[in-house]
Write a structure and sequence with these properties.
By secondary structure, the chain is mostly helical. It is built from 6 helices and no strands. The N and C termini lie far apart (58 Å).
């Protein structure tokens, strides 16, 4: 009986640690990597082949730097230029989280 309890506690610890590792990446970061990085680049520099072909502005561009979070959320939700809207692909919270992550590249 004691061995069974020890085994269950050990299993619970392993599961908890595995869960903690999976949450180490923020939801905004995960969404950005899955939906945005292919065009905007891993660090927002638009240095991917797709980003270059679509002439995506890097995060260092003055118009990008001066855009507010609300403007970026609006552009992501409804689309902007060649970027298609994400309103039917992501929730409002996911869009906000991915924009927050993207804005972390602005220096």
């Amino acid at each position: 009986m004691r061995k069974s309890i020890q085994s269950q506690v050990a299993l619970a610890v392993v599961i908890s640690l595995a869960g903690a590792v999976s949450f180490a990446q923020s939801s905004g970061e995960a969404i950005y990597k899955a939906k945005c990085a292919m065009c905007h680049g891993a660090t927002g520099m638009a240095d991917t082949n797709v980003g270059k072909a679509m002439k995506v502005k890097p995060v260092t561009d003055k118009t990008v730097k001066s855009s507010t979070a609300a403007q970026m959320i609006q552009a992501t939700t409804n689309g902007s230029g060649a970027m298609k809207p994400f309103k039917d692909k992501l929730t409002d919270a996911q869009i906000k989280d991915s924009v927050t992550y993207f804005r972390s590249f602005i220096k």
